[in-house]
């Protein structure tokens, strides 16, 4: 309706006046319409009046986060570490049984059809012991034990020149400690529940510039957190680096769980990697491993079992739109199930292999896919 009114007034009046008077009148009309639009925006504006509060609670207890706002036709959406929380579309978010999976940085978006507002971040964390995390490799301290859960923070942490680097993207805060394995057997380590996008690396060696990677991961945990699995040897020292993928002070959670006297996990000698290419290109995904027990492979596409995909490799002569998505190889034995980190097949107009549609801006810097 506003567009129609503007057109009619301009056509009827301005065309019949001298150019100078017509320009003045048009400006007056435009100012009046801008005022009406501003008034409409004020009437429909969304403004948060009650912010959700961060909380530290015992695991297993309930946590409630609430947001309040003014404005008509309000809708709500909650995120955890920047990722949408399924079904969280009310002013109140209830976490009835706090676990590390439900810890992290929560934020509410309140919106209607015209305006929106974002709450401050509310960090939800469990009551736990502090980890002896050090900002420098040389000052790292030691932890041990089969099972553990501890916390830390990125506050004051920077990076060191000799820090190991991920294959792509930057690290902005790095924290170190050493874990000495109390037994032989597979161990899982993760940063699930951290309130920031993390990167996790486990290494052997005592010289920072010459560490040997045992296991590394970026986003295999929930909501931008990290998770690794590897076979640990009794008495061996493993250097653990927890890093943040973005700037900011945020809580870190670290959990480890070793299963002694269990058949060793497979050793992955070659992992599948993300593919970003052109539509119609040839491509392949493959996993190579060694195992001490009979092992089978099964591939999944977008979480669904792929019929006839029980071999080490997948091959395509020409990728189609139906092939887009995530792929995961799962190794199975009678004693364990080992899930490799999911990888993605994506297309882009430039066929750039190292640039994908993820929340990693650094991957696109200096390419034709980044708006300048």
Descriptive notes:
The chain is mainly β and 372 residues long. It folds into four domains: 2-43; 47-126, Immunoglobulins (Immunoglobulin-like); 129-258, Jelly Rolls (Sandwich); 267-363, Immunoglobulin-like (Sandwich). It has helices at 2-13, 19-43; strands at residues 47-50, 55-57, 63-66, 68-70, 75-80, 83-84, 92-95, 104-111, 116-118, 122-126, 129-130, 142-143, 147-153, 173-180, 185-190, 198-204, 212-217, 227-232, 237-244, 251-258, 267-270, 275-277, 283-286, 288-290, 296-301, 304-305, 313-316, 325-332, 337-339, 343-347. Strands 2, 5, 6, 8, 9 and 10 form a six-stranded mixed β-sheet that branches. Strands 22, 25, 26, 28, 29 and 30 form a six-stranded mixed β-sheet that branches. The protein has a five-stranded mixed β-sheet with strand order 11-13-20-15-18, with no helix packed on it. Mean pLDDT is 85; it is low at 1-26 and 359-372.
Query: Under CATH, the topology of the largest domain is which?
Result: Jelly Rolls
**Helix content estimate:** under 10%
Q: Major sheet: size, sense and barrel closure?
A: 6 strands, mixed
How large, in whole angstroms, is the Cα Rg? 27 Å
Q: What's the overall geometry?
A: globular
| Number of separate strands | 30
